[in-house]
Every structure is written in C-alpha cells, then in structure tokens.
Amino acid sequence: MPKSRIRKKADYTPPPATKQAASIKLTNRSWVAPVMLAMFAIGLVWIVVFYVTDGTLPVKSLSNWNIVVGFGFIAAGFGVSTQWK
Fold first, then answer.
1. Are 73 and 42 in contact (CB under 8 A)?
2. CB-based contacts of 16: which residues, under 8 Å, 6+ apart?
3. CA angle, corner 61, sides to 75 and 39, nearest 5?
4. Do residues 39 and 76 lie in contact, with contact meaning Cβ atoms separated by under 8 Å?
5. Residues 36, 81 contacting (CB under 8 angstroms)
6. Are the CB atoms for 63 and 79 separated by under 8 Å?
C-alpha cells in the first residue's frame, strides 16, 4: 500500500506589530463601593430601628411600609453594585 504524502506546514509567524494596542479607558468608579455599602447599611439600620422601636421610628406614619423602605435601600445598593468594575 502506498504511503500518503506528508505535507510540511509553514511555521506561524505573527503579523508585524505596526498597530498599537487600543487603550481601554475606564472611568473612575471609586464612588461605587462606598455608595453600595452605605445603601446596604442604611437599609439594614432602617429595618432594625423599625423593629427595635416597635414601629414608632423611623417614620411612624409609614407603619409596616418601613420594611419596604429598608429593603428598597438594600435593593438600591444591589443596583449600584452593577456599576462596579
């Protein structure tokens, strides 16, 4: 049986480096982490104060909606966290 022909492959040579790598410009997002943590803390403190004071604080007229406000701050913290790079 005849042997198949062996093809020699050319060695890979990278293209010449005439182009410069595109610089990625990231905006300064140093505000994201402090704002995110602050929103988490405000939401947690809001809910804890509501439970500890039996609903008289932080806003008495909201009654049980104070829990929604606290979770709203926490959700806003998660929303801010999507900006973190």
1. yes
2. none
3. 20
4. yes
5. yes
6. no
Q: 């010449």: which residue's tokens? A: 16
Tokens of 40: 């988490």
What does the alpha-carbon distance between residue 40 and residue 19 come to, in Å, rounded to a whole number?
45
Q: How far apart are alpha carbons 51 and 67 in whole angstroms?
A: 9
What three-state secondary structure class fits 70? helix
Q: What is the model's pTM? A: 0.67
**Residue written as token pair 């804890």:** 48
pLDDT by residue (tens digit) across 2-48? 777 777 777 788 778 766 656 666 678 899 999 999 999 999 999 99
